[in-house]
Amino acid sequence: DRQTLVAVLQFLRRSNLRESEEILRREARLLGDDLGGSVATVATSSPGVAAVAAVPPGKGEARGHCGVGSSSRREPRAVGSPRAARSLGGSLSCAVVVEDQPDVSAVLSAYNQQGDPTLYEEYYSGLKHFIECSLDCHRAELSQLFYPLFVHMYLELVYNQHESEAKSFFERFHGDQECYYQDDLRVLSSLTKKEHMKGNETMLDFRTSKFVLRISRDSYQLLKRHLQEKQNNQIWNIVQEHLYIDIFDGMPRSKQQIDAMVGSLAGEAKREANKAKVFFGLLKEPEFDVPLDDEDEEGENEEGKPKKKKPKKDNVGSKSKKQDPNAPPQNRIPLPELKDSDKLDKVMNMKEAARRVRLGPECLPSICFYTFLNAYQGLTAVDITDDSSMIVGGFADSTVRVWSVTPKKLRSVKTAADLSLIDKESDDVLERIMDEKTASELKILYGHSGPVYGTSFSPDRNYLLSCSEDGTVRLWSLQTFTCLVGYKGHNYPVWDTQFSPYGYYFVSGGHDRVARLWATDHYQPLRIFAGHLADVTCTRFHPNSNYIATGSADRTIRLWDVLNGNCVRIFTGHKGPIHSLAFSPNGRFLATGATDGRVLLWDIGHGLMVGELKGHTDTIYALRFSRDGEILASGSMDNTVRLWDAVKAFEDLETDDFTTATGHINLPENSQDLLLGTYMTKSTPVVHLHFTRRNLLLAAGAYSSQ
């Protein structure tokens, strides 16, 4: 109806919505005879179209895929005004610059003047209105755009020195962002001048790494259509240039599904990032005969049931004979040879395992808590040896203190002069080399020049690692209680270190955002794992020693391949820095704890989140699976140890191809039915947990009087 059309056009003209008016006019094939002067507006739009055509085709192609992680072909875009075309051309060239060299000036120059600063609030609130009015199924997905767009638009205003507009933009919209971005927004609010942006790392990360959003194709098309109709090139440019939209085919995800996965510094992981094959199986144990000491078996077993023990023992020996189909090849990475003492220890381990308590919901472990009293030095790290004979504490006064937890005291080896007098052929030579005069319950190791943040015993209990704020990792001998090596590679505080389950290799992670793999006999690191956008706060070896997990303050967990240094998994979902990691004994699953008080469970093979355990009210600093993997223990700053049913958490997982491909994870609403018990300490935050070989749970922390 022509009359209505004219009325609408006049309304658009009065409201100063020229671009919408033009589009409608073109659609209706109405020229400017009804409304004087609008022929001119149509005419001005044609150079814009020409300008787009003039962009070199090569760059245009790159541009089409720049921000969209899908294999969709490049679709033509409607451009209505020369300004849009100009800014398009400008952003083309700068996008190419950014790819080549992410140095500061190049990165910031992507924020060249694009658009009228006074309209930013209008653009953003227009999009906000559109998303809030869209259908429920799309609204949750499109709401993910709010945060990255808010940050980029704010930074663009600041970079172009529109300080007052930036301030008002920030004040108007920062309250709409999800609560888990509050810390990032606090950093952002301090960037109010162009100069502030130059040295700010968080800012640079946000600029160089594209923020990843996972959106269904339907929601994406809806957004695209809206932005092109509104001619909202400002927002469209940001979407194209700074966001990576990972498009999947299928149903949009629900708010719960999205909330579970988002929250990291750079958005979600691209689906490609978790596609690589991971050998998560265990290596075959070397075979050797287990001598069955019948006498000591009878002696310790007063109930007189030696028959029951025997089959179980063979069972432990034979379990390792089958090769795990998911295990890496035995020689994929070189592992140290087993020494005689290691074999002896394995035999001891098997004997202990035969007497191990089978845990479960009906049979919870006893918990023994080691409280560090009067720890005025400030306890910053704890570790316990695998055989539970020694405990080490790292302290803020830069000391490392080692205690014996058994009646057997700690002794040093005799001096060289005394050793020369010993008969080396005698059976008890290992006993004779120890100096009784040095026997004590506690040894203090001096050497670091800053708080000690991480400690780790070697599996053979001959060495101890400690890492510190002073940027070094030190290797100590537990035979002489002296420092053997100081490894210098990190220039900043080192937050965590851990020995490989096979010894020889160890990993460290620090404030310089990288993790390093070392071997005890090399001064230089063997591998440098770079990719995190903030401090690497915790490190863990996979039970097969072929992979290393790192948790970071960028709120992601990454899994690295020791062989080639590649990142093979990126897990997002935590809303705060990660402080604890634990692999399940079978190598299939990873549990992670963070400052958000949640424990998340991950299936390593499929690269999927499979569970969320809620209950703690503060940072989780300790996680440990029981020896057979039936129970997961978590220890937190909220002064509690909680026990979770790991068997139930991992049974009947939905890991079909669709879930794996799109991340439609369905977490149970309530994790309370997985919680088996909560144990309060007397105002002692829990910093370490350890299951003994017989499944007694040991916990440790320093009493805090506040």
TrEMBL record:
Gene3D superfamilies: TFIID subunit TAF5, NTD2 domain (1.25.40.500), YVTN repeat-like/Quinoprotein amine dehydrogenase (2.130.10.10). The keyword Transcription applies. Residues 63-84, 290-342 are annotated as: Disordered. WD repeats lie at residues 372-413, 445-480, 487-518, 529-570, 571-604, 613-645. It is found in: Nucleus. GO terms for biological process: transcription initiation at RNA polymerase II promoter. It comes from the Eukaryota. GO terms for molecular function: RNA polymerase II general transcription initiation factor activity. Keywords: Nucleus, Repeat, Transcription, Transcription regulation, WD repeat. GO terms for cellular component: transcription factor TFIID complex. Residues 313-324 have a biased composition (Basic and acidic residues). The keyword Cell cycle does not apply. Residues 290-301 have a biased composition (Acidic residues). Residues 115-243 form the TFIID subunit TAF5 NTD2 domain. Homodimer. Component of the TFIID basal transcription factor complex, composed of TATA-box-binding protein TBP, and a number of TBP-associated factors (TAFs), including TAF1, TAF2, TAF3, TAF4, TAF5, TAF6, TAF7, TAF8, TAF9, TAF10, TAF11, TAF12 and TAF13. The TFIID complex structure can be divided into 3 modules TFIID-A, TFIID-B, and TFIID-C. TAF5 forms the TFIID-A module together with TAF3 and TBP, and in TFIID-B with TAF8. Component of the TFTC-HAT complex, at least composed of TAF5L, TAF6L, TADA3L, SUPT3H/SPT3, TAF2, TAF4, TAF5, GCN5L2/GCN5, TAF10 and TRRAP. The TFIID basal transcription factor complex plays a major role in the initiation of RNA polymerase II (Pol II)-dependent transcription. TFIID recognizes and binds promoters with or without a TATA box via its subunit TBP, a TATA-box-binding protein, and promotes assembly of the pre-initiation complex (PIC). The TFIID complex consists of TBP and TBP-associated factors (TAFs), including TAF1, TAF2, TAF3, TAF4, TAF5, TAF6, TAF7, TAF8, TAF9, TAF10, TAF11, TAF12 and TAF13. The TFIID complex structure can be divided into 3 modules TFIID-A, TFIID-B, and TFIID-C. PANTHER family: TRANSCRIPTION INITIATION FACTOR TFIID, TRANSCRIPTION INITIATION FACTOR TFIID SUBUNIT 5. Belongs to the WD repeat TAF5 family. This is Transcription initiation factor TFIID subunit 5. It comes from Menura novaehollandiae. The lineage of its organism: Eukaryota, Metazoa, Chordata, Craniata, Vertebrata. The gene is Taf5.
